[in-house]
Structure formats: structure tokens, C-alpha cells
Amino acid sequence: MLTAAAVVVGLSTVPGVAAHAAPRTPQPDADCSLNLVDALTRLPDDETTLVCVDQGGGSYRWVTYDSPYPMSDRWFSYGPELRLRGQGLRNPEMMSGRWTGYPQDPDGRCGAEQIEVLRAGEVGPAQTVTGRPGEPTEITVSPTMYSIELTGHCLWQQAG
């Protein structure tokens, strides 16, 4: 079941909130920021996965993630929806549990649309949550999640 709760905190204390303008669209070998280190994202081709890595000396770059089965407890959505598989399928990319989407600009909104497996060969209706502008959005990802679409310029982190 997808649930949401607004979390009220000052933007300066929210992990993942950049103090500058919204992040640029990720590209291989392009700059990323410290708050996105170890986060994965996917390009619009829906095939290329990138990870933000610390290059040392205050330099952070998006590089191609070389696993055929990407999975992370940190995902970055940046504009086009980020579609991920859940534990209702083989090779999940996003595990069940509590997740928080942190907007990467002061007026940004994080959103999620989750579809769960009901029984073999049958999925349920989409459950949608959209956060308030500039505030983190909490969701609960089901252990039977088939797929999820994450939206907004947001860093999604699994709790715990």
C-alpha cells in the first residue's frame, strides 16, 4: 500500500536538498553533486543506468552503472518518470519499505505511482502520491510491488 506523509523541516536540514538551482539532466561523464553520491538514475532510453560517484578533490560525476540488474537504496528522478521494478518481479530495482523523496529545488514536488501484484498474472490499480511543493514525500513500497514511477527532481532514499 502506498502511503504518504508530509515531513515539515527546514530545507537546510533536509538531506539531499541542494542549496542551488535544480540539478541538470544527468548524462554520462557530466557533473553531479555531493548529495547524489551513490544514487542511481536512468536515462530516458530506459536502458542506461548511471551512478553519481565521488571522483575525489570535490569532483562528482555521473558514470555508467555496469550491472544488468541495478538495485539501490538511493534513486534520483529528474524529470521524465523513473520506472523501476519491485519485488513482485524478478530482479527488483527498488526494495519494499519506507522511502522518502527529497525535492532538489525549493518548489519541487516528488511523486510516486505504484502498482502491486495481486495474484499470479494480475496487478492492481495504480496508487498515486504527490508531495507538497518543497517538502519531502514519504511512501511505503509494498513487498508485492510490480512497478513504480517516480517523478520530480527528487532524491529518493530508503529509510533505515
UniProtKB/TrEMBL annotation:
This is Secreted protein. Keywords: Signal. Residues 1-21 form the signal peptide. It comes from the Bacteria.
